Each structure stands twice: as structure tokens, then as C-alpha cells.
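user:
I keep going back and forth on a fold encoding question. Separate attempts, laid side by side, tell us more than any discussion would. Would you put together a sequence-and-structure record for a protein of your own picking? Write it directly below this note and I will take it from there.

assistant:
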Amino acid sequence: MTDGSVKKLVIIGSGPAGLTAAIYGCRADLQPTVLMGTKYGGQLMLTSEVENFPGFPDPVMGPDLIERMRSQAERLGAELVQEDVVGVNFKAYPFEVTTDRRTERALAVILATGANPRRLNLPSEARLMGRGVSNCAVCDGFFFKGKKVAVVGGGDTAMEEATFLTKFATSVQVIHRRKELRASAALKKEALANPKISFLWDSQVEEVVGDGKVEGVRLRNVEDGSERVVGVDGLFVAIGYDPNTRIFQGQVELDEKGYVSVWGETQTSVPGVFVAGDVHDFRYRQAITAAADGCKALLDAEKFVKQKLELVSPSRG
């Protein structure tokens, strides 16, 4: 048994990964504390209609889906704390997780802080997010069936998004500020050969045009400064993601892109610290895969905590 001052499990993050881990954690009697952050819920809080999450025959709004997960975790007994984590100490044991108000000590920790898509940082982009502006072709591509869309970016993600969107859109225009793509040779070749994909080189988005929905983009040529408006029904911003791992630097191993490195399915470089969702998964980035990660991380954490508790409370016989 813990002495009361040490939690069995602390979960950092409150998107699908963190909340799923909390739900399973309650069922496993780990009495999880979820440090949600003041801006809780992850990317789903910025998502309008979700049509591909199992169990919802009708579209569900992203914030509503998070609220249902949150309510379920709370009903099962999870402690939900709406505070931002400002530091961790995984070199001590029990582990220490510090918010701006408290320090929690825990036998196991799950990192589920997610990743943020890079933005164009335009007021018009923010205004029309979810109204034709998107960061996820897999999530939103279906809504643009028979329409014209544009993709911003020149790397692997942009080429993957553009190619995927050709399944639905009549045309896909790739907007890139350089004369050459940065994508891998295979993805570049596939995109250049696709008859539905065209390229707007040396171009930068200055404004997303539209009143209530995307109607076009105003582009500036970075070479000569000329501007023009290109009519599109949707804009997909695919210029990369930034994992939320700043507070974990020097505490767990990160890869060259800043994502948490994983051994096996969910184990980080520190035994007892597990990871789930987009903070390590830069490939799939879906609500359902994040939720699955949360389940796996919890099951691994459950085994770890059980072993720790057996060491301090050996069975008698």
C-alpha cells in the first residue's frame, strides 16, 4: 500500500489518450490523478464534427466527445485536476510531478501531453478553423468530396495529405514557399505524378478568404511580392507538429524531432514512466489511436505498479 502521500498513478494530459488511461486506471483500482492542464482536451477541443470515432452513428462535436470521456472518467472515480504541469523529476522515486500549485508523487506516470500542429498564425486562419481550415486530411477530407482544396507545405506530411485528399477533392493545389519540395523522393514522385495535384511555387498564404467558410486564399509571391487570390473550398495546413515535451527534456529520452522515444509499446527510457498518444506517435495522430495508446499505457502501468506494491507488501503464507 502507498502511504497516502504517494499516488499510484499520475496522468499528464487530458486528450483521448490521457482520459482513456484514466478510465481504465479507475477500473484497475489505480485511483488515477489526471493533471489536465488549464486548456484541457487536446486537439479535439478545436475539432468541429467527428464522424470516425466508433460508437457514434451521428457526427459528434470534438469538445462534446472530450466532455463525455471526462464525465466517464470522473464518474468512475478519477481525480481530475485542471492545473498545468510545470516540471517533473523522474530521477527521483517515487516520481515527482509539479504543477503551479502542488507536487504530486507517484509510483507510475503516463505522459499524454499530445502535439500541436504548427499554424500559419493568421487571424483569418484561426477564424475559419473548422470551417474549411483543417490540420488533418484523414479527419476532414471526406467533407470536401467534389470540392477544390489547397495544402500548405512541402514536406512529407504535406505530400501525404495532398495525395490522400485526391480521393475526395476534384483538385488539390499545393502551396509551397520554395521552388522545390522537401519531401522524400517516393512521396514527391507520387504527388508530382498525380493528375489531381498542382503546385503553386514560391507562394505564401497571407490571408484565408471567406465569410463563415473558406472561399479562397490570398497568396504572395515571395520572389516578386505580387499577390493573387486563388479560389478553394478548403485549406489544409501541413507544415508539421510540435510535440509537447519541453518539460520532459533531460528526464526521458526524446528523438531528434522532440517526440518521446518508446521501447516496446508504451515504455519510455525510465521504467515506470509510460507514454500514450501524439506526444510519441507522429505517424497516425488520430483520436482513436490515441485512445488505444491510453489503454495500452495503462495496462503496462498497472503491471508496473502491482510489482512495486508486491515488493513493499509481500504476501504472507
